[in-house]
Amino acid sequence: MSTKIEVKTSDILQQGARSMDTDTSEAYERLYTEIYALEKMARETFQYQYRKDYEAVVDKLQNGGRLTEDDKQLLAQLVIADAKSYVKHAREFETWKDQVGRLLSELNEIQNQGVHTTDDLLHIQALCRDLRGVLPDLTFYLRERERVQSYEMNDIQSLHPELKKMLAEVIDAMMKSDKM
Q1: Has residue 28 got a pLDDT over 80?
Q2: Is the distance from CB of 93 to CB of 138 less than 8 angstroms?
Q3: Which residues contact 176 (CB under 8 A, 6 or more apart)?
């Protein structure tokens, strides 16, 4: 691992401990900023490590060259490794589903009793806020899982030449992007 990444990770762990001790929005916002910087640093390091290899694969895709097994593995590394790792290490999926189920159940209880008071309206607002907080995580996880499944179901070598060129353009742009 890069020394810069190790130093940044250490800083984040310290900031995380301070955030959890102080429980202030400012501390957690600082932690968020540091985590974003670490993610960017990891992405840039990844892009730097694979720059020569991916250029050769992009050239093969654009010019109709035959992909080796190593090329295919590199493509998978570039295209879905992040999603695969996220799906593999995400431990909250069932918790998110349970939370959505619990919140919807509470909403159902309110609906069954009828909305009669200001407290009922405020409760609905709170439930909606909580649902809006968990649904993006759940949706992101499922999209990443579906992306991995879709990629693994297709054979890159059998793609139409125009699709290979398009894939080459996407990979090239992705590896040059600050949002990979």
Answers
A1: yes
A2: yes
A3: 47
Tell me the C-alpha distance between 92 and 128, whole Å: 20
Residue 69, amino acid: E
Q: Render pLDDT for 107-162 as a digit per residue (tens, 0 to 9).
A: 999 999 999 999 999 999 999 999 999 999 999 999 999 999 998 888 887 888 88
CA atoms within 13 A on the CB side of 18: 15
Digit-coded pLDDT (tens) for 52-88: 888 888 889 888 888 899 998 888 888 898 899 999 9
How far is Cα of residue 40 from the mean position of the Cα atoms in its chain? Answer: 13
CA 5 to chain centroid: 19
How far is Cα 32 from Cα 35, in angstroms, rounded to an integer?
5
Q: What is the DSSP string of the chain?
A: --HHHHHHHHHHHHHHHHHHHH--HHHHHHHHHHHHHHHHHHHHHHHHHHHHHHHHHHHHHHHTPPPPHHHHHHHHHHHTHHHHHHHHH---HHHHHHHHHHHHHHHHHHHHH---SHHHHHHHHHHHHHHHHHHHHHHHHHHHHHHHHHHHHS-GGGS-HHHHHHHHHHHHHHHH-S--
Alpha-carbon span 17 to 41, nearest angstrom = 21
